[in-house]
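Quick start: read one record
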Amino acid sequence: MSLLEDSFSGSEGQIYSSDQVIEALSPQITARRLARMKEVVAERTYSFASVLENIYDRGNVSAVMRSAEAFGFMNFHIVEQPDARFKAANRVTQGTDKWLDIKKHASTSACVSQLRGYGYKIYATHLEASVPIDEVDFSQPTAVVFGNEKDGVSDEMLSACDGRIILPMHGFAQSFNISVAAAITFYHVYQARTAALGKSGDLSEQDQQILFARYIQKSVPRSALR
């Protein structure tokens, strides 16, 4: 069973399959770029989800996105309360967001409900009552939540989680900033999945083709698909 829908919209509302997208648009992309896309797609997974809850600094959101994309973690969730205030980012995602599946939620409960519906175990990064990150089995569908820069993960999210994890630290500092914590977490998850499964990427051949077609479509003008 495919995780991804094999359906692509053209510039005038037509619907195409991944085969049709690849055939029509791949001639507009260099062979080297196409080969790189295939390499990237082979390392993608939906078995790990990144969750950001009420992050204040948009620059931090962008930084975490870049790290998630670099390790092939497609599933990216953002919880933003409707009345939340944010700090504008001096940095931008540099287009990273188009390579991820980003889902936004207006409440913590909505995010948790969706993750549960897809069978994820949910862990929060936290300093108290936590287990070391290397004790978690990341070969199974898992989500890790990173909380607000000041207040951390909300009590509501902590209550909904299966557990709390902490990163190893050997200095006087007691915590990392969110972008560093996320990058270290993603590296650990990638290494743990590779050790357990042989590789972190786990998409079926069909899903790899669909994602390959999606990346091709995102790399050329929308008007090119008629």
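The two ends are 29 Å apart (CA to CA).
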